[in-house]
Design brief:
80 residues; alpha+beta; four-stranded antiparallel β-sheet; 3 helices; 4 strands
Length: 80
C-alpha cells in the first residue's frame, strides 16, 4: 500500500513542525489499512492520518505521537 515517501519542501517542513510524514499510497487504500501497515512496518504508533487525492495520486499525511519523533524515521528512510 505504501508506495514511496514524498520529499517536497512542504513535506520536509511538516516533519519538523507537525511530527508528520507524507507518503504516496495506493488509491484504493483506506485510512485504517494505512495506519495498520505503518505501525507494523515501522513499529511506531500513529496518532492521525489525513489523505488527499491529487492528480490521480493519493497522498497520506501520517502524524505520529509525541514520543516517536518523525525526524528519526525520516532519517532512517533517507528523506533528510
Amino acid at each position: 500500500m505504501l508506495l514511496k515517501p514524498v520529499t517536497t519542501e512542504k513535506a520536509v517542513k511538516l516533519i519538523d513542525i507537525d511530527n508528520t510524514l507524507t507518503f504516496e499510497v495506493e488509491r484504493q487504500s483506506k485510512k485504517n489499512e494505512i495506519k495498520l501497515e505503518v505501525e507494523k512496518i515501522f513499529e511506531i504508533k500513529v496518532e492521525k492520518i489525513r489523505t488527499l487525492i491529487r492528480s490521480n495520486k493519493k497522498i497520506a499525511y501520517i502524524k505520529f505521537r509525541k514520543e516517536n519523533p518523525a525526524i528519526d524515521l525520516a532519517t532512517k528512510l533517507g528523506m533528510i
